[in-house]
């Protein structure tokens, strides 16, 4: 587990209060499965009883005609969004757009970029691990350019940055590579098939309603032998905050509502990528722990990141007594010796390739000349062959 220090230190106290972003005060970030599958103490979770299964109840959004393209400043393209009629809409994408717009236009937005910059750097490192250059690349859900700032022009030629937030694209970080900003929903990529040599994505796809379709579109816009490198929040993200809020709400209100968003499990990532057509898959996990003065600072930073909850079945607000109880539970269950509290972010990294004839293929079944049972005797086998 790696530790990342936010730009506001643990001893810095509460930041100045700002107007609530769109969506109200329910600011919990996207996290994993219900807390019963996370790290809450089992004895406390059993107190939830039969209510535990009620944490996920998606509401289907009625289908509406796609809006016309939205105008934007010079040098930026804008496209309407679209969603798959067969997908259950768990997230309010319009609310998510407003939340990200609100966060990107704050004067102190840079101080909340520490996590996205760290993960964006990890994605860029995986790009450098591939010994080739990429004339045309795409960033799905680019935000302010958290991957682009770590890339150089020797590796990437032209870099397209797609995001749903107009303000995030306007305030994108300047880089040495040539970039093109495209205002579009990550659920609908407005590009032709076989266009890009590389597609990347960092901490954006966890808010997509139809993840299988998103992976399929990414596969389609890649050229043959193109590669997709992505990063998403994992199921144990913010398990401390999730457990504290649920236990406090159970104690004070006799039940709880989902204050963190449902998330894809790690064992599903490889399956979804395979269904989309990717091969030579690699999926690995990492954990980043950030220490804060208290629970309210955790929620303040999530708001500043634009990671407020946007589930359709979210609760509009939490009572003051419930919030204070949650903060006390957070401190008691997870607090550090110095009085700070940790917030854990689990990251799934994934790599998938689009098929090409030049790629290595599995050997024909039955063509092996050495049994796995003989691996312990490999030195003897090699010596015999040399003789």
Automatic annotation (TrEMBL):
Keywords: Methyltransferase, Mitochondrion, Oxidoreductase, Transferase, Transit peptide. GO terms for molecular function: oxidoreductase activity; S-adenosylmethionine-dependent methyltransferase activity. InterPro entries: Malonyl-ACP_OMT (IPR050602), Methyltransf_11 (IPR013216), SAM-dependent_MTases_sf (IPR029063). It is found in: Mitochondrion. Residues 1-38, 59-80 are annotated as: Disordered. GO terms for biological process: methylation; mitochondrial respiratory chain complex I assembly. One of its GO terms (cellular component) is mitochondrion. Interacts with NDUFAF8, leading to stabilize NDUFAF5. Interacts with NDUFS7. Interacts with PYURF (via TRM112 domain); the interaction is direct and stabilizes NDUFAF5 protein. Belongs to the methyltransferase superfamily. This is Arginine-hydroxylase NDUFAF5, mitochondrial. It comes from Ornithorhynchus anatinus (Duckbill platypus).
């Amino acid at each position: 587990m790696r530790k990342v220090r936010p730009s506001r230190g643990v001893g810095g106290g509460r930041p100045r209060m700002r107007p609530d972003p769109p969506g109200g005060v329910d600011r919990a970030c996207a996290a994993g499965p219900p807390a019963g599958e996370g790290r809450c103490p089992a004895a406390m979770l059993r107190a939830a009883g039969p209510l535990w299964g009620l944490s996920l109840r998606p509401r289907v959004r009625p289908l509406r005609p796609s809006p016309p393209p939205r105008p934007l400043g010079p040098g930026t393209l804008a496209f309407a969004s679209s969603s798959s009629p067969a997908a259950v809409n768990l997230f309010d994408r319009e609310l998510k757009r407003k939340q990200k717009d609100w966060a990107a236009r704050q004067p102190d937005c840079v101080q909340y970029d520490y996590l996205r910059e760290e993960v964006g750097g990890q994605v860029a490192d995986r790009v450098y691990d591939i010994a080739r250059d990429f004339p045309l690349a795409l960033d799905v859900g680019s935000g302010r350019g958290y991957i682009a700032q770590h890339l150089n022009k020797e590796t990437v030629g032209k870099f397209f940055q797609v995001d749903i937030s107009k303000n995030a694209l306007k305030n994108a970080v300047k880089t040495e590579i040539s970039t093109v900003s495209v205002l579009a929903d990550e659920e609908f990529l407005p590009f032709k098939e076989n266009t890009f040599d590389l597609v990347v994505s960092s901490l954006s796809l966890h808010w997509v309603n139809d993840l299988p379709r998103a992976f399929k579109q990414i596969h389609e816009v890649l050229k043959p032998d193109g590669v997709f490198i992505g990063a998403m929040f994992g199921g144990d993200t913010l398990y401390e905050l999730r457990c504290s809020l649920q236990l406090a709400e159970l104690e004070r209100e006799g039940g709880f509502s989902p204050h963190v968003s449902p998330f894809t499990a790690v064992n599903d990532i490889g399956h979804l990528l395979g269904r989309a057509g990717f091969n030579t898959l690699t999926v690995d996990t990492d954990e980043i722990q950030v220490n804060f003065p208290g629970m309210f600072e955790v929620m303040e930073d999530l708001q500043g990141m634009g990671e407020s909850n946007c589930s359709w079945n979210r609760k509009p607000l939490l009572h003051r007594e419930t919030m204070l109880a949650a903060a006390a539970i957070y401190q008691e269950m997870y607090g550090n010796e110095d009085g700070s509290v940790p917030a854990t972010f689990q990251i799934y990294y994934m790599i998938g390739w689009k098929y090409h004839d030049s790629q290595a293929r599995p050997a024909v079944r039955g063509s092996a000349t050495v049994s796995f049972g003989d691996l312990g005797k490999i030195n003897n086998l090699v010596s015999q062959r040399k003789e």
